[in-house]
Specification:
The chain is α+β, with helices and mostly antiparallel strands. Helices cover about 55% and strands about 5% of the residues.
Length: about 425
Amino acid sequence: MTVAEAASRPVTHPVNPSRASSLLRPEEQLLFRLAAPRHSASEVRALVARGIDWDRFIALLLNEGITGAVWRVLHSLDVPIPAAASAQMQGVAALSDFRLLAVRRLLERTLARLAAGGIEVMVVKGAALASFVYPEPGDRNMADIDVVLPAARAREGAMIAAERDWTMDGGELKEALYEEHHHLPPMSDTIGLDIRLEIHTDVLPNGHPLHFGIDALRSRAVRRTLGGVSVLVPSSEDLLLYSCVHLGWSHEMKVGGWRTFRDVSELVEQPTFSWDRFLALARERTLSPACYWTLELASRLCGTPVPAQVLRALRPNVPGFVREIVARHNTLQLTPLSGHNPSEALARMLWNVGMRPGAAGHGTVRPWHHSDSKIRKSHELGLEEKSPSVERWWAHPMGIQATLSYVWRLMAH
């Protein structure tokens, strides 16, 4: 663990009305605390004792697709839950567990066929986390199976996958849409699991400014066995770095927060994880802002133990009161079903303020450039009805009112 053995296990943030309760409703606070159950058991029980709207809480879980994982945590903590809510969560969790077991078997069959074709595979993201980090595969839901293949053999790998269980849909237009992408067009499963296979040749879209690429990831990877097949798996530190970059850069601190915070909580407890090794990688200036915001919110919202020295080393050079406003904004963005932020333009401005991309060496490249370009190209190919646009909220009275109300909320708490 180190960094002075994680500063002798830092104290987690308590549930504090000035920092959390006034910004998030009890159901939202409970959800985030359940992402780090080893360190938040007392806070979880305190929140439940104060009163939870269980219908609303279950709606949050269903929206995020995390009912199974959350139900197991609640059950392990022996939290008192009304019988109807308990039965509903348990039923959804059972279906989720059945699906994820089938997904695991599908992954293993796919890996076996790729290995038979002599193609080396590195499993990343959810597939790596569910298989090698979490105690049970059902603890980590997945919408995609992400694997990295050598670029020269990626299309061959897709053809092998398509021989059974997977189909390539979209034809030539979809191929054209993804020709400059970091993974091939997603493949859909043919057995009704509603999951996609993404065959990557790199970890981030072409043209990104971050010093984080597949060659370095592969050089630090470890060899593990999955379903009898030898695969490469990123190191614990790289899995955490990947999670931070994915949330902070690729997703602009907008979606996937709970799942990422849960991943962070599990990764930092791995016997192989070292804060010193992670910090040596994360302090690279193009990566540190995304790492800071992910870890700061994991600590603040969930109680995940992150050494203060790590946060200080990664913290962007932003005035404290501004950093607090950005933290509140990111919290609201990552809260399921919140619908708080009325303006995409404002979200992008606050992302720039918090990340300081110029100082971080990002140049003029921003994460939304890739998504906007993809949407624009999809529109040109006839696959999308609309071109990308960022609304001019200042041109409409209702937009002005909603945006000013949101900004006031960020500043008032």
